């Protein structure tokens, strides 16, 4: 009988190689290749059946309220989760270091404990004293909150048996260690083993578990891709270090929509909900200025009104500077080319600056019309009325194309006091009353509508 060959496996990513090497060819880590026993050969014969412990039931007999969501007490967080936390669910919250993940979860367990429920906060990155100091600073101290500074998974399960919580926070899953499992702490093997055990705990004990996850330099969740498949909900916590605005964005959700966005504001004394973020992205001038245009962007299912500013300056440089902030630089360059071809803007001798207000990030094509109006307004030095909002995508031929959710965008603009909306012609959605609507076919009609020209196809909505 041939002798079974040993297997050399990377403890970081699980990649197998035929012989020992110093560096893993898959993840690039040094010194992680180790020899392990060969895996048992699976039997070729069919697997014998085993009597199930519980029989299968008809779907019509399953109670629909068996997985009812429980609100956390934070409306913006519940909005993203889908009305709240479902018992027995596992939620993965990932974000960059210092963005405010622990602060948000401390506020969550405080609101949970205020409802008379027990919460267990397990930290593997800080001591219990450090968590207590931050909880005092953010006013998140409650007697129904239990703290445990542990990294051993077995000990964490022991705390669960003693405390019997209905909500548990694990901060973070990369610091947990499953005894008896190969691999380094935070490696693929360890993360998979820890997550599998916690998912099994949640399903059998009906405890809702929120896992804090790290992200890579590319912004992806650190660890194996199977981590996102194991959990029920995956949330991304985003924020800019130069702005206090924080957003919780749904990536996967088995209990609700996966494209919801919750807005928060990070302050020195904690994190606060922002139920109306549109006001952050607008700046009111004492008088109308050139180079500014308002837009309505869709972030998930949420309509947010923002403002785009553009500046074109004459220069003697051979290669004029192009600077873009908060916008897709390739789309701004495209709008410059379209404006030069169809609107007579010559930017080859001008520096071009374009940015959003308040740190807003807009990448969708519906911002094209507002970008063009801001560029054209700066070039002509003629302001766009501050009560006008522009919505639409521009094609390379200068035509204005339809975009999705026109009715929701116009309704948000009307709610914030805008009196005039420029939208693409052919939009067949039922629009709200009480706001003047201009339907335009190309960019010149859009600029004429913004300046109040009578040649544009203007429809006055009745009040």
UniProtKB/TrEMBL annotation:
Q: Which SMART domains match?
A: AAA
Provide the alphabetized UniProt keywords.
Answer: ATP-binding, DNA damage, DNA repair, DNA-binding, Hydrolase, Metal-binding, Nucleotide-binding, Stress response, Zinc, Zinc-finger
Give the binding site residues for ATP. Answer: 95-102
Q: Name one GO molecular function term.
A: hydrolase activity
Motif RadA KNRFG motif in this chain: 252-256
What's the stated role of this polypeptide? Plays a role in repairing double-strand DNA breaks, probably involving stabilizing or processing branched DNA or blocked replication forks.
Cite the domain annotation text.
The middle region has homology to RecA with ATPase motifs including the RadA KNRFG motif, while the C-terminus is homologous to Lon protease.
Name of the protein described by the UniProt record: DNA repair protein RadA
Native source species? Gordonia phthalatica
């Amino acid at each position: 009988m041939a002798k079974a060959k040993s297997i050399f496996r990377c403890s970081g990513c699980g990649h197998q190689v035929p012989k020992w090497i110093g560096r893993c060819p898959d993840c690039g880590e040094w010194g992680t290749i180790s020899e392990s026993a060969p895996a048992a050969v699976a039997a070729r014969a069919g697997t014998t059946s085993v009597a199930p412990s519980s029989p299968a039931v008809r779907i019509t007999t399953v109670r629909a309220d068996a997985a009812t969501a429980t609100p956390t007490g934070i409306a913006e967080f519940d909005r993203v989760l889908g009305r709240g936390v479902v018992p027995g669910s596992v939620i993965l919250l990932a974000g960059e270091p210092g963005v405010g993940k622990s602060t948000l979860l401390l506020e969550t367990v405080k609101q949970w404990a205020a409802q008379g429920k027990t919460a267990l906060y397990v930290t593997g990155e800080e001591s219990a004293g450090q968590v207590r100091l931050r909880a005092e600073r953010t006013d998140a101290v409650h007697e129904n909150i239990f703290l445990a500074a542990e990294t051993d998974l077995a000990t964490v399960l022991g705390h669960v048996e003693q405390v019997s919580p209905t909500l548990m926070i694990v901060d973070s899953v990369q610091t947990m260690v499953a005894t008896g499992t190969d691999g380094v702490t935070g490696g693929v093997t360890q993360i998979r083993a820890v997550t599998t055990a916690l998912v099994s705990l949640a399903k059998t004990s009906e405890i809702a578990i929120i896992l804090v996850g790290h992200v890579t330099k590319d912004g992806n969740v650190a660890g194996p891709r199977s981590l996102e498949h194991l959990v029920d909900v995956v949330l991304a916590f985003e924020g800019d270090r130069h702005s206090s605005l924080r957003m919780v964005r749904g990536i996967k959700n088995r209990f609700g929509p996966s494209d919801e966005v919750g807005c928060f504001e990070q302050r020195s004394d904690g994190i606060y909900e922002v139920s109306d973020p549109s006001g952050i992205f607008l700046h009111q001038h004492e008088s109308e200025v050139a180079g500014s245009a308002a837009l309505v962007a869709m972030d998930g299912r949420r309509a947010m009104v923002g403002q785009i500013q553009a500046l074109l300056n004459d220069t003697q440089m051979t290669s004029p500077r192009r600077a873009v902030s908060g916008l897709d630089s390739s789309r701004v360059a495209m709008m410059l080319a379209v404006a030069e071809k169809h609107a007579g803007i010559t930017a080859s001798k001008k520096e071009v600056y374009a940015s959003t207000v308040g740190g807003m990030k807009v990448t969708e094509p519906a911002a094209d019309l507002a970008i063009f109006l801001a560029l054209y307004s700066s070039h002509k030095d003629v302001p766009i009325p501050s009560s006008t909002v522009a919505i639409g995508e521009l094609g390379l031929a200068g035509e204005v194309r339809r975009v999705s959710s026109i009715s929701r965008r116009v309704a948000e603009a009307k709610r914030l006091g805008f009196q005039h909306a420029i939208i693409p012609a052919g939009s067949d959605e039922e629009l709200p009353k009480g706001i003047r609507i201009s339907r335009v076919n190309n960019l010149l009609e859009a600029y004429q509508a913004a300046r109040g020209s009578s040649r544009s196809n203007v429809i006055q909505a009745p009040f």
